[in-house]
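Hi support team,

I submitted a single chain yesterday and got back a structure, but I'm not sure I'm reading the C-alpha cell output correctly. Could someone confirm the output below corresponds to the sequence I sent? I've pasted both exactly as they appear in my results page.

Thanks,
R.
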Amino acid sequence: MTPEPDLQVSLAAWSLHRLFEAREIDLLGMVRLSSDLGIKGFEFVNTFFPSPQYRYLQRLRQTAAELGVQLLLIMCDGEGDMAATDRAEQLQAAKNHRKWVDIAQVLGCHSIRCNIDFARRRNPDDRSPEAEPSAIRDRAAESFRVLVEYADGAGMNVLLENHGGLSSDPHWLVSLIQAVNHPRFGTLPDFGNFPAEIDRYAAVRMMMPYAKGVSAKCYDFGPDGNETRTDFARMISIVREAGYHGFVGIEYEGRQLAERDGVVAAQNLLGRLI
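Hi R., thanks for writing in. Yes, this is the structure output for that exact sequence:
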C-alpha cells in the first residue's frame, strides 16, 4: 500500500474569482473542477456562498464527499474590525465570525481564516497611541481570544494569513499568535502578500511553527514552469523543514493565463515538488 504523501495540493476558491464574478462557475462547480483536475482539497471564500442554509451546505458536503474532495477551510472577509478602537465594535466583529465557525463545522472543514481589517487600512501618518502596533495587537488579541474560545467548542481552528498591513509583518503576526496563546489559533502562511522590504522566505519560516494550512500564492510562470516571483522549491523546503504535513493551497492571481490554466500550471509545479 502506497503511503500518503506528507504534502498534498488543494485549490483555493479565490483562484477562480474572475470566473465566479462573471457567473461562469459557482462553488459546486469549483468543487467539481477540483475533482476533475485531481486536486483533493478545497478552500472556500465566504463571499462566494449563495446561501448559508443547512440544505445547501449539506449538498456541498455530499458532493465533495462523492468526488473525494476534502473541504478544508473558509477564508472570511468583511465581518468587521477585530482591532477596532471601539471595544463594542471589536467584540461584535468576533461575534460576526461565529456563523462561519458553525458553517465550517457543518461542511467538515478544520478552520476559518480571518482578517484584521484595521491593520489593512491603517493610516501610516496616524501617530495616536491607539494606532501603535502593540496597541492594535492587544485589541486584536482580546477579540481573537473570544472567537477562538467559541471555535474550540466546535472543534474548529482560527487562522491568520499575511494579508496586508501589519499582518504582513511576520514579527507582529507571530506576536499576536503568541499573545492569544491557544492551540487552535494559528497561521496560514501565504507565499506572497509581503511588501518588498520583507524577506518572504524568512517570514514564512517564522510563521510555519504555527501553521495549520499553507497558501501557494502564484501569479506568472516562466518557460521552465517555475513561478516568476517566488522560488517554490525553496518555499516547499521551508514548509517541510517545519514538520508541516497537510495541504498546500493553490491561490492563482495572475493575468497571463486564464484562471483554469493558471491553476493547472501551479498544480504541475507543485506536483514536481511534493
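A quick pointer for reading it: The first helix runs from residue 17 to 21. Let us know if anything else looks off.

Best,
Support desk
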